[in-house]
Amino acid sequence: MSTHTTRRDFLAAAAATATYAAVASPARAAMPDGRYLYMAMPDGAQTQNRSGVGILVFDIDNGHKLVKRYDVPGMKEGIRGMTGCGATACLYWGTTNHRLGCFDLNKGEAVWEKTYPLGCDRSCITPDGKTLYSPTGWWYAGDDGGFIVIDPATGEMIKRIEVGPQAHNSIASLDGRYVYLGTRTMLTQFNAADGSIVKQIKPVGESGVFPYTVNGAQTTAYVCLGQHVGVDIVDLTRGEVTHRLLAHEPDGDKTIGHRTHGAGLTPDESELWISDQVGKRLFIYDATTSPPTPKGHVELSSGGHGWVCFSLDGQYAWPHTPDVFDARTKQRVTTLSDESGKPVAGSKFIEVHFKDGQVSTVGCEFGLGRK
């Protein structure tokens, strides 16, 4: 394994750069104070419930009503991931065609966009806003796959970190210590400050490379399985899988023989939710026990890619469907829809708070433990 940058990489990264303003409204008025859900369109992993190209903004405290739409032409290729940072007040979105863009939340416009030799899958950014880590993509099977390290201010590539094939989902820990990357049946933990490898856990996840989540203490990860609905539970301190949690059909003891795509912890870490996108369900577990124990499930209105995330206060659960659930009562409370009333959904969305006309808080697209 090596860390390197080549002149060819830098030239290729600089070859396709664009700076432009998105088109949302002529006045570019500041967002009113409040809590909003920003969703990127179209989702590059699912065709269900798409609505145009750009970013849709929903008012969380006003029934999740659509309040704004930003036209971002570079998103038309299909979004593979979107990460955000309160320190920079920006969202960063990636596409299958190696494109990464930066959307300034305060300005309400895209400020840079670049194309790289590889990437850009579900990227992550360190909480201080100094470093973007972009996976080279689940679609890239070369052994030199891994991370492209990028300057968030300019989009310039700093270096590459080789890890392995099919680099897909990445997470920056909320405490700023670590960055995580999933590759083919391996989870790697990095030092967030310099990108050095801390430990690698394998095999994990059954097959392929799928989503995961981590708790706030950085001691446990839950990695989705590739052939069953369930997760591998990883002890990050010891660097090993300690338990395989398999969901069962609600009406019996039969395990469910298709992949899981999406696992999220409620912010207080009391529950683990995992997605059964084929079965159109989210299974819920009591995460205060070891291993977690079943608590039930909720039914989804449609299929799709699979995902689950929560509002920062733990009130709402947001899956890859138009459904919005009260995470405490497990009841569906509303449906996301566009200007025409058409249900909309995706798996690339982030909570953003505004105070005094400026961004005050930015969430994460992953359902991370925050205890």
Task: Explain briefly what this protein structure is.
The chain is an all-beta fold and 371 residues long. The protein contains one helix and 31 strands.
Provide structural commentary:
By secondary structure, the protein is mainly beta. The chain has 1 helix and 31 strands. The strands form 7 sheets. The chain has a 5-stranded antiparallel sheet with strand order 1-13-12-11-10, with helices on one face. A 5-stranded antiparallel sheet has the order 2-9-8-7-6. It has one helix at 7-15; strands at residues 3-4, 17-18, 34-41, 54-59, 65-70, 79-85, 90-95, 99-104, 109-115, 124-125, 132-135, 146-150, 157-162, 170-172, 178-183, 186-191, 197-201, 212-214, 220-224, 230-235, 240-246, 263-265, 271-276, 281-286, 293-299, 308-310, 316-319, 323-326, 332-335, 349-355, 358-362. It has a single domain, classed as YVTN repeat-like/Quinoprotein amine dehydrogenase (Methylamine Dehydrogenase, Chain H), CATH 2.130.10.
Strand order of the largest sheet: 1-13-12-11-10
Let me know the number of strands.
Answer: 31
Query: How does CATH name the architecture?
Result: 7 Propeller
If helices are DSSP runs of H or I spanning 4 or more residues, what is the number of helices?
1
Largest sheet: 5 strands, antiparallel
The outline comes out as globular
Structural class: mainly beta
- In whole angstroms, how far apart are the ends? 34 Å
Helix content: under 10%
**Integer average pLDDT:** 92
